[in-house]
Amino acid sequence: MFVWIFLVFGAILPVGIVAAVLGYNFQIALYGLETNEPLSLIGILLIILFLLKSIVAFGLWTEKKWAVNLGIIDAISGIVICIFIMLIYPFIDNTPGFSVNVRLELILIIPYLIKLNKINTDWQSLTLLIR
User: Fold this and answer.
1) If we measure between CA atoms, which residue out of 106, 102, 55 comes closest to residue 77?
2) pTM (two decimals)
3) 3-class DSSP state of 35
4) Among candidates 23, 26, 32, which has minimal Cα distance to 12?
């Protein structure tokens, strides 16, 4: 199901990029990073993350050899960003007060990473047999 969600996001991504270049602002958020300005530093980072997720989704859907390895990179980057947002970002954020947000995305990302690691060897050997 997540494959389809990120495939749809990947299909919408070019429209969002064109809208941002034309000066339209819209909200974009992932892993606790959020912005209303898609051409800001955080906005560009989020666009790159959504692009990565859509490429991984396409690769897994079409069973490409590189898909699992790129998915592992995607999962690790998601975990690192979530941990950064939870533990480090509150100290460097300029908003008044202090708050720690527990990122619930980790509940999905960690099993995703474990599953990708388990199927990595089988996936690589199957793609060699198909060739």
Assistant:
1) 106
2) 0.84
3) strand
4) 26
CA angle at 2 for the pair 81 and 20, rounded to the nearest 5°: 65
Structure tokens at 125: 């050997």
In this structure, the number of other CB atoms found within 10 A of the CB of residue 31 comes to: 22
Q: Which of 57, 59, 101, 95 is nearest to 81 (CA)?
A: 101
Look up residue 85 and give its amino acid: I
The region, left, alpha or beta by phi > 0 then psi within -120 to 50, assigned to residue 97 is left
Digit-by-digit pLDDT tens for the chain (131 residues) are: 678 888 898 999 999 899 999 989 999 999 988 889 989 899 999 999 999 999 999 999 998 889 999 999 999 999 999 999 888 887 787 767 667 778 888 899 999 999 999 888 887 776 555 55
Gap between the Cα atoms of 80 and 72, Å rounded: 12
Q: Where are the domains of the chain?
A: 2-130
Query: Which residues, in sequence order, are CB contacts of 36 under 8 Å at separation 6+?
Result: 25, 26, 27
